[in-house]
Amino acid sequence: MDGIAVAPYGPKWMANRKFFYSAMRTMGLGKRGIEKCVIDEVPYIVEELEKLCSSDELFEPSSVFDPAVLNVLAYFTFGNRYSYQDEKFKELIHINNEFFQKAKFLNQPEFFLVTLIPGLHKYWLPQCFRKIHKFVKAEIKHHRQHLDPQNPRDYIDCYLNELNQTSDQSELSELGLEMSIMDLFQAGTETTATTLRWAVLYMVNNPHIQENVQSEIDNVLGFDQLPKYEDRTRMPYCEATVLEVQRMASITPFGLLHCSEEDQKLGGYHIPKHTCIMPSYHTIHFDPKFWKNPNEFDPCNFIDPNGKVGTRDAFMPFGGGLRICVGMNIAKQELFLFFVAILQKFTLQLPDDVKSLDDEPIPGMTLAPKPFRV
Ligand code: HEM
């Protein structure tokens, strides 16, 4: 196992994770910093939503969020974004979503059979995994042919440069690059797009909160000024609302599986070596010890008495420890900037005959709202 999310704790995981951070820094200094990738996507989201609204038909917001978040990662890794109508891109979204659905199998007991019988994974791996792999390999081949070592354009170029400079003993490899990209797509698209769908759901179910958000946007940005990530310091209510969406939705209720490397003591319990551990972030996010009215959607959970946004130890949407989400800073920027840009231009409403949306999630590896239309 190579890459980041699926790699076991060890030198390969460490090298790929470290490389991801260093690429973010390198690219952050250039024209294609992650914030630019996100901001550049905003006009396309607005345009797509305008098109959908003008038809008077209700629509499911994932038709906009899926391509938008995948485009940010495509921009970061492949160096270009795709038109939402591009057939190749539609196919990539389809196979990426399909793979995510299949990956729910990872939480089932059958998965342990796959890990116990050597070689079985070759037969079990679903077709969509092979398709994404083929797509990523083709992009890497294309990048290798057009690589200019002095001007790395994106994540793949930075990684290839590093491979060309390092020795055979390096823990980085072409397979590590392929797996890392697939991890970023897998871990970084459904999670972010699903959180945005929850944001829409909570806004239509709580119109008074939507009004407060919009009035802050009107005061700080007006109707035309594009939001920047630094604006969040002047927009505490919007920032707190996004954090509250993450708490209430708790889309990764158990994070990823962890395993103790040694015998450990934790909270007075003895954890033997090689115990499988699933932290329950969902429990922490709804614990009345930490939250006044945990079952109520209330952005004030994150606003301190001075009106400033403060986070809490009992808030862990991105997990914690050594394996904390590597895409946390990308996701935070996407959530804030997309959320603000949408509510700057649109008011989200339910059809006349619907009072509120069902906020019971569909159970799974991530907690998603049931399909809905606005
Ligand atoms: C709202 C969006 C997101 C949420 C809620 C989320 C949440 C998480 C959580 C809970 C974990 C597991 C941490 C643990 O086991 O303690 C994780 C891991 C991970 N996430 Fe995210 N994530 C999000 C977005 C992203 C994005 C945008 C990317 C990529 C750009 C990404 C890439 C990863 C990777 C590669 C890992 C595995 C890290 C490792 O094992 O070292 N995630 N994420």
Account of the 3D structure:
There is one protein chain. By secondary structure, the protein is mostly helical. The protein has a single domain, classed as Cytochrome p450 (Orthogonal Bundle). The chain contains 14 helices and four strands. The strands form two sheets. The protein has a two-stranded antiparallel sheet with strand order 1-4. A two-stranded antiparallel sheet has the order 2-3. Helix 7 (127-145) crosses helix 9. It is globular. Bound molecules: protoporphyrin IX containing FE (HEM). Protoporphyrin IX containing FE (HEM) binds next to helix 9, helix 10 and helix 14. InterPro entries: Cyt_P450, Cyt_P450_CS, Cyt_P450_E_grp-I, Cyt_P450_sf, Cytochrome_P450_fam2. One of its GO terms (molecular function) is iron ion binding. Keywords: Heme, Iron, Metal-binding, Monooxygenase, Oxidoreductase. Belongs to the cytochrome P450 family.
